[in-house]
Amino acid sequence: MDFRRIEWIFVVVFVALDIFLGWSMAQNQRVYLSTGTTGGTHQVMRDISDDDIALPQLSTKTSTGAYLASRGNNALEKNYQRVAKSGDQSINVNKGDYATLDATLNSTYALRKHDVAAQLSDWVHNPKNVLYGRKYVYQADLSSNSSYVFAEKVNGNLILDDRGQLILTVHDGQLTGYTQTYVDKLLTMRNDEELISEHDAVTTLYQSNEIVANSRVIWIHKGYTYLLDAKGSTVYIPAWFVGIESKNSKNVSIKKLNAITKAVIKSH
């Protein structure tokens, strides 16, 4: 396939995606114009208090972001032998909607009891252990004592999505293996747009019945998440991720909100 044809395919794909995103934003904007202004901010905050929902200090500061797109890549499949040999790992790369690398350490890695996350970060950032490891950033709020989550950062954009993630498995103080996905490059599809604030994200989730009574918001983060696939391209959107804990069960659920359109993102 010659260069001009490849270039033309990219143009067609991105024009189609741009039209779709514009339509989607218009639809969501109409929905939230009708539901998001009821009662005003002060009344919403009173309702949240009446429902016994505890909130952290929420910023009203806004920022900017854009829709981003990536093409499929075979970087993990092509290069996994580098760490399989140097890191003494048994590796399998699974192909699905996106490539997933599953690694088992042939000799487990012993961890000290204190500062486990720091030790794992050092291990991840060693190129002998993990492909592109320096691109991954530890996410404490998404991790547990047995599963340590690292999110990929691409051109300064944090990917909080299964497609750009590294999950390390720890058992009885030993690192036993990990699962990795990887986003190679990201292209900006549209001009930067204003993103809603933390405060707006939480109140919108409450008004959408995504935050129930007798609960507490324990953390909130902003990052990029998957929107859709079209003709070999994957589109990512800036989103707010909100951790909500039930005061009764202590179970934590994660809610997602499109930071541009205010649309609630449902997990599939």
UniProtKB/TrEMBL annotation:
Keywords attached to this entry: Membrane, Transmembrane, Transmembrane helix
Tell me which residues make up the Regulatory protein YycH-like domain.
Answer: 41-260
Q: Which GO terms describe its cellular component?
A: membrane
Q: Which Pfam families match?
A: YycI
Q: Where are the transmembrane segments?
A: 7-26
Q: What protein am I looking at? A: Regulatory protein YycH-like domain-containing protein
Q: Which organism is it from?
A: Lacticaseibacillus sharpeae JCM 1186 = DSM 20505
